[in-house]
Every structure is written in structure tokens, then in C-alpha cells.
């Protein structure tokens, strides 16, 4: 089983420290300081390094030394994206730019008048996706586990930012399902991660980068059960302070055959997502941010 516990890397005090650095010293200096932070994690974050080494060596075929460099670059890129997020949300820098691909697919979903589900991953600048799409006239609500929501809310509330993420926290009482249904009825967009799950939730086992592992069933089942269109969203960090926000062509399981087997529809949608995710991970291997035993090789740890 996956050992992820519902919390993402990056603590409150660390975020608050970089808010101060960004405010007084700027984004470039923060990037420079981040190099030492990335080196620290490479030396002392044993569990995360072990999991990333498996990813780079066994799944991408790198040798030991190139894999260690890749792990360092992964930590460094992850930190850069966190800094960019803080800078963007707090107005500390106007250097962050972006290019959008696939806007026509989001427009297509809007024209369908059913609302829609945007399935993303813990990859690249996923937290920036909502802000970048808002500038294009779309403002998705983000469905995420309550532990992740509390951490992000704590950081945002500590900052002077006027920008707020519209988050629907996933709770044990399942009230989030009612909120999602209500939002879709209002023809709104819902963003949800398709690459992590907690123990006890339903999963689907499929090959990813040459080896089978488990993915959450919920995002794909939700789209099929609620009969709403789906697009896969990935935001990649490019050179400098630039980002590229990608929206995939629309997937709408009931468009062609409304009588098709629902389990088959769910499986087909999951396979399409995983294939797209795999393409992005291969192209941007330093932007894959799952710091735990993703392929379930026995390490009993979670991302810290």
C-alpha cells in the first residue's frame, strides 16, 4: 500500500522564512540560497532520496551519479516552484510569466454547460495552475485532502496576500462530495489530483513508467458517475521564471456511447490520464514531486 499520509513536503516556518527573504532580498537571491537547502535535503532526507533514486535509476534508467544529480535538481526545482508560488501570491515579483496551451479545450468544457473536472498531479507548478487559469477567465475550485489544505491555508493566512485559493477540503464526513456536486451544478470547474491516495480508499492498479502501481480511483469514477467532461492539467516550470500551463483535449466518456460499461469508462479515463502524466514526467523528470514509496517497494515512510 502507498505510505503517503496526506501531507506534502514543506513546513510552515520554512515558507514563512522565504516570505521574508522574498520581500526584502528578491527572488534571485532566494534562488541562490535555495541551492544550499537542496543540498541539505540531498544529504539528510534519507527516505525521500531513497524513493527518488528508485524513480531515476529503476524507472528512468539513470546511473548512480546521474541519479544523485537528478535528485538534487528535483529538490532544487521543487524549492524554486515553492518560491515562485509565494512570490506570485504575495506580489513580491512581476518576473513570473506563463504561456498557455489548450485554452480551447477549457473553452469547450465551458460551452458544454456541465461544469468540468480538471485532473492534475503533484508535478510541476500545480498550485500555480489555478492562478494562471484565473488570468484566462477560469477559476477552478481545488479539491484536496484536509491536511494539505490546512498547511497551504496556514501559509497564505500568514502572508499579506490578497490572492486566495478556492479549496474544497476532503473530509471524513464526505461533505466535500456535496460541495463538488453543487459546484458542478453551477457549471464550475473542479481541480483534483489523480496521482495520490490514502490507505483505505479505492484504487486502480495500472502500469506507469514500466511498472504497475496504484492510483486513486476517485477522480476518474467521479467524472464518469457525474457525467462531466474532463481535461488533464499540467503546469511546467520552464527557463528562468516562466511557466507553461497545458490543458489536454476534452475527455467525455458518455459522448459516444452512453450505454458503455461504467467500469470500462473509468478504466479508460485512468489510462488516458496516466499516459499523459507519463509523457510529462519523461520530458520533465525533475518536476516529479512524489517523495515517497510510489511504486510500493516496501519503504514505510511518507513525504516529509
Characteristic terms for this protein:
single chain; 304 residues; alpha/beta; 7-stranded mixed beta sheet; two-stranded antiparallel sheet; 10 helices; 48% helix; globular
Task: Kindly describe this structure.
Helices cover 48% and strands 16% of the residues. By secondary structure, it is α/β, with parallel strands linked by helices. The strands form 2 sheets. Strands 1-9-8-2-5-3-4 form a 7-stranded mixed sheet, with helices on both faces. A two-stranded antiparallel sheet has the order 6-7. The protein is globular. The C terminus is likely disordered.
Give the arrangement of secondary structure elements.
Blueprint: H1 12-25, H2 27-44, H3 46-59, H4 64-90, E1 97-101, H5 103-112, E2 116-120, H6 126-134, E3 141-145, H7 146-157, E4 167-170, H8 175-185, E5 189-193, E6 203-208, E7 211-216, H9 218-226, E8 230-237, E9 242-247, H10 262-283
Parallel strand pairs: 1-9, 2-5, 2-8, 3-4, 3-5
Antiparallel strand pairs: 6-7, 8-9
Helix pairs in contact: 1-2, 1-4, 2-4, 3-4, 9-10
Evaluate the radius of gyration. 19 Å
Q: What is the 3D form?
A: globular
Low-pLDDT runs: 299-304
Separation, N- and C-terminal Cα atoms: 18 Å
Report the total helices: 10
Give the topology string: H per helix, E per strand: HHHHEHEHEHEHEEEHEEH
What is the count of β-strands?
9
Structural class: alpha/beta
Provide mean pLDDT, rounded.
83
Strand order of the largest sheet: 1-9-8-2-5-3-4
Strand content: 15-25%
Percent range of helical residues: 40-55%
Biggest sheet statistics:
7 strands, mixed
Amino acid at each position: 500500500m502507498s505510505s503517503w499520509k496526506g501531507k506534502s513536503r514543506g513546513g510552515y516556518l520554512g515558507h514563512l522564512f522565504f516570505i521574508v527573504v522574498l520581500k526584502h532580498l528578491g527572488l534571485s537571491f532566494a534562488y541562490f540560497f535555495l541551492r544550499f537547502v537542496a543540498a541539505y535535503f540531498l544529504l539528510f532526507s534519507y527516505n525521500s532520496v531513497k524513493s527518488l533514486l528508485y524513480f531515476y535509476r529503476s524507472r528512468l534508467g539513470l546511473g548512480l551519479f546521474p541519479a544523485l544529480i537528478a535528485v538534487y535538481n528535483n529538490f532544487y526545482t521543487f524549492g524554486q516552484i515553492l518560491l515562485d508560488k509565494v512570490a506570485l501570491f504575495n506580489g513580491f515579483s512581476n518576473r513570473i510569466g506563463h504561456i498557455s496551451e489548450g485554452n480551447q479545450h477549457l473553452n469547450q468544457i465551458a460551452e458544454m454547460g456541465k461544469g468540468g473536472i480538471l485532473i492534475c498531479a503533484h508535478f510541476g507548478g500545480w498550485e500555480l495552475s489555478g492562478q494562471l487559469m484565473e488570468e484566462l477567465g477560469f477559476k477552478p475550485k481545488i479539491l484536496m485532502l484536509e491536511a494539505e489544505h490546512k498547511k497551504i491555508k496556514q501559509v497564505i493566512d500568514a502572508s499579506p496576500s490578497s490572492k486566495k485559493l478556492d479549496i474544497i477540503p476532503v473530509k471524513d464526513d464526505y461533505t466535500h462530495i456535496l460541495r463538488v456536486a453543487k459546484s458542478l451544478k453551477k457549471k464550475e470547474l473542479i481541480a483534483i489530483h489523480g496521482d495520490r491516495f490514502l490507505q483505505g480508499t479505492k484504487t486502480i492498479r495500472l502500469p506507469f513508467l514500466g511498472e504497475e502501481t496504484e492510483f486513486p480511483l476517485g477522480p476518474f469514477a467521479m467524472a464518469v458517475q457525474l457525467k462531466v467532461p474532463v481535461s488533464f492539467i499540467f503546469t511546467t516550470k520552464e527557463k528562468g521564471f516562466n511557466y507553461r500551463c497545458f490543458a489536454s483535449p476534452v475527455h467525455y466518456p458518455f459522448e459516444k456511447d452512453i450505454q458503455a460499461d461504467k467500469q470500462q469508462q473509468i478504466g479508460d479515463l485512468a489510462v488516458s490520464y496516466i499516459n499523459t502524466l507519463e509523457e510529462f514526467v519523461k520530458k520533465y523528470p525533475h518536476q516529479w514531486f512524489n517523495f515517497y514509496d510510489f511504486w510500493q517497494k516496501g519503504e514505510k515512510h511518507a513525504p516529509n
